[in-house]
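Tokens for 3-hydroxybutyrate dehydrogenase. Go.
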Amino acid sequence: MSSVTGHTALVTGAASGIGLACARALADAGAKVHLVDLDPGVRDIASEVGGVGHVLDLTSSVSALPAEVDVLVNNAGVQHVAPIHEFPAERFSAMVELMLGAAFRLTRHVLPHMYSRGWGRLVHVSSVHGLRASAFKSAYVAAKHGLEGFSKVAALEGAPHGVTSNCVAPGYVRTPLVEKQIADQARVHGISEADVSSQIFLQRSAVKRLIEPSEVASAVLWLCDNSFVTGTSLAVDGGWTAQ
């Protein structure tokens, strides 16, 4: 039996990719899961996993979401690639607001319930780019580095209340977001998508394949099941950060 059995979980960016894999893993482990996404299809997806779907723009208020949450998985994210001097300022702000601001607001929203019960799990889906930088990804790298720091503060504050806070930092995961990036890069560079994966995306990874969303979800569930692991970042990156 998992530690999440019988608990309530909320997963953002849950209509596809990592978020959906996490929602499925938590539901399979016996949690009641709330799935949040901007995509209206999240309602149908939620019914498939026996959960509840919420359509919401996380850059606005999160007060419409349940606060009685025991496991929070901050996963929602987007990507935009451009050099800093060409990066739209409004795009930068919106990305940081989604990946860092929303994580703060959701954590603030659910912590009183976790504190009152003396148990809670905060898992923030960061990225290898929360630990390392890549050119042309200023907003994403800044947001993920901020998320790593925020998670550590939440770990220090939450420890006396039985609440852990950790990050999972995957490399390139086989998600619609990454597959679109691969297709875009193939067009820009005039090479095949397979060459984009091997020559660009996986250049710094010792394990030369994309990570499956289910592997990230397994790491999330593992962190939920461990009460002494807090304030850390679990790199699921195929050896990228070993260099």
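The mean pLDDT is 95.
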